[in-house]
Amino acid sequence: SYELTQPPSVSVSPGQTASITCSGDKLGHKYACWYQRRPGQSPVLVIYQDTKRPSGIPERFSSSNSGSTATLTISEAQAVDEADYYCQTWDSGTVVFGGGTKLTVL
Amino acid sequence: QVQLQESGPGLVKPSQTLSLTCTVSGGSIGSGTYYWSWIRQPAGKGLEWIGRISTSGRTNYNPSLKSRVTISLDPSKNQFSLKLSYVTAADTAVYYCARDPSDYSGSHYIWYFDLWGRGTLVTVSS
Fold first, then answer.
1. Is the separation of the CB atoms in A49 and A43 below 8 Å?
2. Residue B89: helix, strand or coil by DSSP?
3. B35-71 pLDDT tens trace
């Protein structure tokens, strides 16, 4: 079955840029999206169709998808960005989620 | 704005059927070209898509759960529901309902979830 691999954790200093990767076989040939889940809250879509931001998502959130890796980039990281981030795509008629990355801003 | 809210028993006995309902408010479940999905997350584990239903009643299920899952739609109540049979402790999780605006872009299918409910914890225990 298709798998997406994310690093368990990423740390970033406030104001710096955080990058979270998501790897899967020929992932660049598929569309990927990203969700943010703050503690105690439900997931929020932050990127869809590789690079698009839903209404209300800050421009600090951007993404790319090429080859086997999708990358979520959070520029000028803030304490409010501290959360779990999940990538997602689909394969063989079913949704596939990455295992999630805990972003720590400190 | 559109909101989703899960409801149902928080405790289910092993071998019984888990039943949850998602109520859509602020908009009609039958409007637009959305699918309506169920997703779950066991404690300390990742997200798992369970299945979805279209506004026309067409369903797609995760192959790993397909034999035990039924998703249905009740437009008159603006609700959709999940039934998961023969549950075990492994089915203990937070269950989310979500809106699924999937569509094609050229020849590529775009599949994502743009709106989620708050989630409800279901524990399977005797």
1. no
2. helix
3. 999 999 999 899 999 999 999 899 999 999 999 999 9
Question: For residues A8-42, b (16+ Cβ closer than 10 Å) or e, as one string?
Answer: eebebeeeeebebbbbbeebeebbbbbbbbeeeeb
Residue among B37, B112, B116 whose CB faces A48 most closely: B112
Cβ-contact A90, A96 below 8 angstroms: yes
Strand order in the sheet with A69-74: A18-23, A69-74, A61-66
- Rounded to whole angstroms, the Cα distance separating B89 from B101 reads 32
Positions of chain A with pLDDT lower than 50, given as ranges: none
What integer pLDDT is reported at residue A21 of this predicted model?
98
Rounded-to-integer distance, Cα B96 and Cα B43, Å? 13
State whether residue A76 is helix, strand or coil.
coil
Give percent above pLDDT 90 in chain B.
88
CB contact under 8 A, B113 and A86: no
User: How many angstroms away from the CA of B124 is the closest CA of chain A?
Assistant: 21
Specify the length of chain A in residues: 106
Interface test with B, best of A2, A42, A96, A102 (most B CBs within 10 A): A42
**For chain B, what is the radius of gyration of the CA atoms?**
14
Residue with tokens 């809210």: B5
